[in-house]
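Data availability (excerpt). The following record was deposited with the supplementary files.
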Amino acid sequence: MQRLVFFALGSVATLALLLVTGWLAPPGGSERADNGGHYTLYAEFADAGTLKPGARVALAGVTVGEVADVQLNARGYRAKVRMRIDQSLDHLAIDSVAIIMTAGLLGEQYIEISPGGHPETLSDNDYIEDTQSAMRIETLIRRRIARPR
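Predicted structure:
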């Protein structure tokens, strides 16, 4: 009987720990206020790394949208990324920068938007012209090994 009580208490404690740390949280998280309205922005990158549809798009660390699609633009051999941005963020300057970041050292990739200062703003189906591609750990290691001393 005592083993059953310890097992039940351990199971409840494990479940509570998983809920608190977010492992059992519903998809999408609670940090994003979604009012239902979105608009589309595009960006092209020389290297999209492991960026996938559904990845978050953030501004100042706060989720403001998601990656809707990643495709190859065959004309310029660049990765064309379509993003769905919350309608409430309708004042992004045309000189904003889209940067592919990695959450932690080996975490998932996402897009961080660095806002510009130009008075003109991006609107539906516009392109963010200034982009920075994903930094690959393999490339960094290869450069370090190949560097002569």
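Summary of structural features: The chain is about 20% helix and 35% strand.
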